[in-house]
Sequence to fold (670 residues):
Amino acid sequence: MAETQTFLRALRERLMYLIAVLLILLIPLIFFSFGSGLIEKVAKKIPLREGNFSGAGGVLKVERPAAPR
Amino acid sequence: MLAAAGKALLLGLATGLFCLGTCAPVLAPLMLGEERKGLWPLLLPFLQFSLGRLLAYAVVGAVAGWAGAGAAPVLTPRRVGASFLALAALMLLYGLKGGFPGWRLCRLAAPLLARLRAPFWFGLLLGFNACPPFLAAMADVFLHGHVAYGLAFFLVFFLVTTLFLLPLVLLGRLSRYLSLRAVGQWAAVIVGVFYLLAGLRLLIP
Amino acid sequence: MPRTLICGHSRSASIFLTTVLFFMMAFLLVGGNRNNAGMMQASLVYLVFMTVLAYLLFRSGRVHRYRSIFFSVYAIAFVLNFIPILLETRGHIALTGRDIANLDTPLCHLTIPMLILPGLVYGVLIFPTKLFANMGFYPMLFLWLGATVVLGKGWCSWGCFYGGLDEFFSKLLPKRIVSSRKFNYSLRWFPFALLLVIVVWSFLALDPVYCGWLCPFKAVTEFVQPTNWLIWVQTGIFVVLFLGLVVVLPLLMKRRTQCGLFCPFGAFQSFVGLANPYRVRIDKEKCNQCGACVDQCPTFAITRETLAKNKVSITCARCGRCMEICPRDAIQFSLLGVPLRGHDARKPGFLSEVFRPDSLFTFGALLFGAVISGGMAAQVLLRFVHLARTGSFLFR
Fold:
């Protein structure tokens, strides 16, 4: 029992270190994806549109949509 | 209706975090009782307590909406502005002083109610409290002057405050309440400033 | 000041970590500018600067000192670049009605918490920016998501382009003028309250109210052109908040008052940052409750109460200051699920030094910080060269 626990603990520690290394490797991927068109591809599927601003008086205000989706 | 829900959410958070947060330590022993075996014995007093609060809130919401409907012709922007300023003063006092005499009442009443072992009555009484966010909620409903609006408003208010009581009752995490209370306190200050500005805008033509 | 026991790295481990970091930074910083000789040269200069900082950081273990230099340079470069870019592309700094109607407003991460609810309920972006523009919504959202995974709350000390400003001012005076001995630490919950209010309020008004009323950084970036008294009041608030929270209080208290006591995005990041596996932990066997960290934490994240429980608040921004001043070396960067062994137990050995949680965190944070700041820093360098040559800070 104790042995299993020690083994599991060691496994968990290794896994965390692995995650830590993967997080470092993720950084170049994040910055590369900016030029790759990946963001556009994913974001096009999200139903979000740009606001319609009157701009009168320079006040940031969006026209309230007619009804919630 | 969404706007009502949003405002009720905000005020409910300020009340839930701070006022109920203050009452919670008093409330907890009443809720938890001596034995904590099983979910049902834990949940039953909480449900009774919640039912009491819900009833109180429904009454307050309906009455405030009804009274507002009657008073609508008298409510000039100037008077509304002035009442906003009064509310702002209350909220700021409540937030900055870090307390309000009202909650001491709660502390005084708790042992009596605990002896009665009647969570329903405790909830009902706590429902009619004098916390400034609660007063602000009442004022909002009054100014709108619709019974249905008042009921909807206070239903959200009830749900939000319940959200904050639930973990306390189920987990007994008292220490977390100190920081939550501080958040609620500062939220009251900010909402107070908003009321101040809204009041001034109504008063200054 | 008590003797410090900061745990740096051996020379070989420092050289190894710096070399790997150098190549990764070079790949990302210089590689992206292959078609622009000027930017490539400027990026090389910045690369050298970051490499030297990284070596000093690893070797000495003074995470806070060297991070703070990078972070201040980054924030100043951001401001020095942002306004000229506005002048070059728009011809003016202040936002006009037409800019807003054309969605020509660059978006920053501070708006994200206010955009979520209206986006979910109405499917509309309530900030006047384009979805896919260079500083538009999706690139910023994506960058923030990435930063949240990689840095967590560490974003506030390694990635945010505003945070370095109050850090910079907090470092200017050698000594504190206002003591924080009687400081009311419940103020550190103010950003959470502000977050709550602005999220709900923005949803109700369908207007990012923080940007319109409360953002201190409008004072040094862009603001709505004052055309009536209300906008003058708003602009006045920006300036007062900036001077108060980013300049004067950091100067007097030597703390990051904007980040620790005001920024609602910081509060938001405290929650979402929990997705990142790094934490700052206090070794209860080493800590003797001297309170040096309570007195020095730039973002007010350690109080007497949290210290008594050997914990730091959820608001800890991973800046490394406590580790640097702890006289018993009791505070460390750690990984969730990995026990806090303490520096004594850190086996001397090349691999165990490289794979220390603090080495891994600072490595990632430096890489992220260098890449996100690289373009701005390089461009500002070029601007200075341009200024010396032509007398103008603007490229056209």
Notes: Residues 50 and 62 of chain A are 10 Å apart (CA to CA). Chain A has one domain: 2-58. Residues 2-58 of chain A form one domain.
